[in-house]
Fold each of these.
Amino acid sequence: MMYVAPFALTLVIAGGIRALGGAERGVRAAGGAVVLSFLISWGFFLRPEWLPADDITRIGHIALGAALVGLGLDLISPRRFWAAAAAAIVLLVSTWASVRGGLSLPLGVGWAAGVAALTAGAFLMIARLDAARAHGATALILLAATALGLAAIARVAGEPRLASTGLILVSSVLAYTVMQWAMAVAVGDSIILGAGAALLALAWALAEAQPWVRPAMIFLPLIFFAEGTAKRVPLPAARISSVLYPLVLAGLAALPLALAVVIAYVMAEA
């Protein structure tokens, strides 16, 4: 039920938003269902503390804040420059909160440099997802594959709560993939920022809980380059290619995922 619930909730909430919001706003705002269903399921089944007292509880707060900003961007539809600026601020605050355990000051030169470097890396990942969302469910598949990889590494590392967090996110994203195929709802900023920030917070929590898995996690960003390879795979010109391409992309994304998990398993046995 822990993984069926977010799938069903995403379908219901996204469908409701699409129906109530109409063909314009409803299509753009439906993506808010992904993080909302994730948070509801995550809060109900894992029972995290309400206050962001540690890396795990901060996942929900970071995801919620990022999703709200993304939903606002979806509804307002500003120029991409302003959307990028808003994303940069969200990622800076999220990284700052993760590294410092809050928004305390002062940072110091070393802390500030670390936060800046991590924020830049996070921004590149979000930018990659933002570019991929123009190609149907591509961004959703990349998000789901990365979350699945983190969940598998967390399971190998003996972190069941983090593993469940990743799988709940996978379930929510996959459900929205179905909605995107069935109802042509948009893959908006609420998903790119909300689910992307949740993914980054999950990765940070795992890296802090079990530092020895960090070398394995280095291979997960290779998932975001699977799109370029998938585009080079020759597919038939018929309509079946719209079904084959997501399968090819998922298969290619599974390669660095499997490599990261194997490395984590070898390191756990060493």
Amino acid sequence: MKIYLVSNNSLLEDINYSNTSNLELIRMVRPLSIKGEENAKIISELPIFQNINGIYSSFYSSALQTAKYLQQKLELKIKMNMNLNDCQVGLLGNKNMKMVKGLQEHDFRYKLPNGESLIEVGNRIDTFIKDIKEDNIVLFTHRRAILGFLLKYAKVDYNLDDNLILEFNNEVIYDDSDTDYDIYEINMQENISIKRI
């Protein structure tokens, strides 16, 4: 069974969310940037996605905005599922997002109150994938959610700057570099195989 995990990482930055302090809501409704829209169009044209049988998306605007181009091209319905939502941050308190990210990438069980650890989001994504019966599908989700999933199967290491690196079959499949989008091909056979596209 072949599954693709897709994250479009180009989100609109210059937004002022007045009258709300709900971080999770802000993250959920944050739209793609113009570059993100361009990424979504590029993703929908990739040859690997021309014979897809199913499209799934998280409830986040950015994932849906990315999925819509492939949905229109293939004339398939988008199946939304909360299990594909991003890793919940929780209550930041006196911490910031960069600090939480660094702590979580060195302690995969670390989480804030009302938040999720990378282990927890990885288990959520892994269970969802194992319950899918379709073949050749795309899951539009988020970089942290994908990272949590990859942690279950990849070798963990750190580079000279102490940034997280993941390897699978002696190939780096995840690093801390900024990418416009991430695509992973997962083959669920007796033994899982993972490759970064």
